[in-house]
Write a structure and sequence with these properties.
Number of helices: 5
Pfam families: PMP22_Claudin (PF00822)
Number of domains: 1
CATH architecture: Up-down Bundle
Oligomer: single chain
Strand content: 5-15%
Shape: elongated
Helix content: 55-70%
Order of helices and strands: HEEEEHHEHH
Strand order of the largest sheet: 4-3-2-1-5
Subcellular location: Cell junction, Desmosome; Cell membrane; Cytoplasm
CATH topology: Butyryl-CoA Dehydrogenase, subunit A, domain 3
GO biological process, one term: cell-cell adhesion
Keywords: Apoptosis, Cell adhesion, Cell junction, Cell membrane, Cytoplasm, Membrane, Transmembrane, Transmembrane helix
Distance between the termini: 34 Å
InterPro entries: P53_induced, PMP22/EMP/MP20/Claudin
Radius of gyration: 22 Å
Number of strands: 5
Length: about 190
């Protein structure tokens, strides 16, 4: 990307595209019911960020209780949701930043800083949830934190990595804008 500059059409939108993928992963984590699931038969428990569902036997009905009745449930949901909203704001700002012909590199560095703040909030929610869930809610059988919880961690890791890219990109401003003379290494025969 640095070699061809941000005006190179295929490279210009890579970072906003990756932010968009992070937003999609965050939506999957927020809406998914697979934060915690029973690992073995009979499947008797599954939980999302918002509720915990149990089933007494294999053919029985699922009975669900809201996790918003617990202070830690509200804290985990609120911190992860704040991190997700900051990610959406960064996505919108990145589209604006890369759509403008003249890039504002300090603006891009600000998006990187905001991504780090979003990552902190997301990780707080992702740590509060399993610690308090496993200590305050009785779990039966063998349970595992599952696919939606994994999407939450993937979103947080993407926020950190993209934060580094957005913060480091202004360091290569001259190379990106083509203001550096190329150096040629020539050796005489």
């Amino acid at each position: 990307m640095v070699k061809y500059g941000l005006d190179y059409t295929r490279c210009r939108w890579i970072l906003p595209l990756l932010l968009g993928i992070g937003v999609i992963f965050g939506i999957i984590a927020l809406a998914g019911r697979g934060w915690l699931e029973s690992q073995t038969l009979p499947y008797v428990q599954r939980a999302s960020l918002w509720q915990n569902c149990r089933r007494p036997d294999q053919g029985g009905e699922w009975s669900c209780e809201s996790l918003m009745g617990y202070a830690w449930g509200r804290a985990a949901a609120a911190t992860y949701l704040v991190g997700f909203l900051l990610l959406v704001i960064c996505f919108a700002l990145a589209i604006i930043a890369f759509a403008i012909d003249t890039l504002r590199f300090n603006f891009i560095r600000g998006i990187g800083g905001l991504l780090f703040v979003a990552a902190v909030f997301s990780i707080m929610g992702l740590v509060i949830y399993p610690v308090k869930f496993s200590s305050e809610i009785e779990m039966t059988g063998i349970n595992m934190f599952s696919w939606a919880y994994g999407f939450g961690w993937t979103t947080a890791i993407m926020e950190i990595c993209l934060g580094f890219f957005f913060c480091c990109l202004p360091n290569y401003e001259d190379q990106i804008l083509g203001n550096v003379k190329p150096t040629y290494f020539y050796s005489s025969p």
